[in-house]
Amino acid sequence: MKASDLFVKALEAEGVEYVFGIPGEENLDLLDSLRKSKIKLILTRHEQAAGFMAATYGRLTGKAGVCLSTLGPGATNLVTAAAFAQLGAMPMLMITGQKPIKSSKQGQFQIVDVVDMMRPLTKFTHQMVSGDNVPSRVREVFRRIEDERPGAGHLDFPEDIAKEKSNEKVIPRSRVRRPIAEEKSIRHAVEMIKGARHPLLLIGAGANRKLTSKMLRRFIDKTGIPFISTQMGKGVVDERDPLFLGNAALSSDDFVHRAIAKADVIINVGHDIVEKPPFFMEGGGVSVIHINFLSAIVDPVYFPQVEVVGDIANSLWQICERLERQSSWDFSYFLRVRKLVEEHITECADDPRFPLSPPRIVSDVQGVMPSDGIIALDNGMYKIWFARNYKAHQPNTVILDNALASMGAGLPSAMAAHLVFPKRRVMAICGDGGFLMNSQELETAVRLDMNLVILIMRDDAYGMIKWKQDAMKFTPFGLDFGNPDFVTYAKSYGAHGHRVKRADDLRRLLKKCQAHRGVHVIDVPVDYSENDRLLGSEIKARCRRLDRRARK
Fold it and tell me: Model-level pTM greater than 0.90?
């Protein structure tokens, strides 16, 4: 058969449901093969958005998402998405077209070395040079990018290779069982936890990837050890749990960092070094148990003393079998920290100010989202507030990027979540800066008849950088901009536009939008002026009082 048909059959054998992207003339054979396939082509308006969608599909399913572009500028537009998937450990395959490699009469027109360009951003990159190699190369790239730690892969498929004939057969997927941790490492970890006075559980991104929530739930119920999460570990265990202390949304000086400082053993499950560190190790300080699929990548602030390497869920099960609640454990300080966190979150939940305060927005969104509802966050100041204040009830119900932290991913990620879970409530939460980086995908969402709510947090500036600029005592400069009328803008795409005019409008509008089909864009004026007080001086003052009481 034609190599492009063989390529598509290989994708089908891998379980591919969607291909996101923008074809070019170099992809026309592959496009025709897709036309005859059960795989759905999701035509987007920008390759970067296609990559974000493919990566988020990979994050939510554990199966590689696939995106497509032509050569040259189409391929270069995938670079940010490649980094997004690679740093965020999301399995994603990029397929790029290319001019004929055996004979071309167009010189260097649109030619860049895409394979070398993708090499530092992927786990595997390769240019197809023979139709007969299609089955093995497709099987290998999927094996690489879906294996722990997942990431991005790339295949360059020249148009003359796509036209070739081949008698090769598709290579089926093999069944793989992940290795389990060695018994001595389990025993060592159990002894360290038993000997602790203030053990603390930290849940990271790796625990979210493989959905280890069942065994973590068992571990917490059996031991009673309090837990915190990183931003990309949100929701692995229901955050309404009375032992949940909070999320490590800030780099330091939040309430949860007081709990971390009090801990003498940190049980670090699924830690991924790409996230902003939730704590900083020092020689002679806290002892850390690293429980993960792979051994720890050591850096100046992370060098665990004990490593339990293997399937996370199995490691937790083995530890649970050997560990009982210890009368010597003391969690009283941790529970006082939790009380402070809860007080701080609820105090500003009904703030009547307008423009709205971030805590009020988080509270209103929390109030309308069901337990299985999904919020997809772009990157900006509001991401800290949602990571900190929003309670995730289930794994991967808060989709955020704390690895590359790229702007522009919020809307495409929400769209991918809608495709994976069409019956669940999905909301994109974007800043005005990040939204406009991929706002053209409103047309894609409307064309696909999606049901989405898109919240635009409008402050007419790059708010997070403005906050940092002010904190570092620089003169305000270069961060303010104008915006379109977002209501009119949404309507021009065939979406529904709404504007919040009073503090009480938001929750009412959210309920209204969720009750009606279609794509809804809500313009929400936001006031970040209280960031320094709420996230700085106020927390520090309360923590000082906490420490004084603890010393008495």
Answer: yes
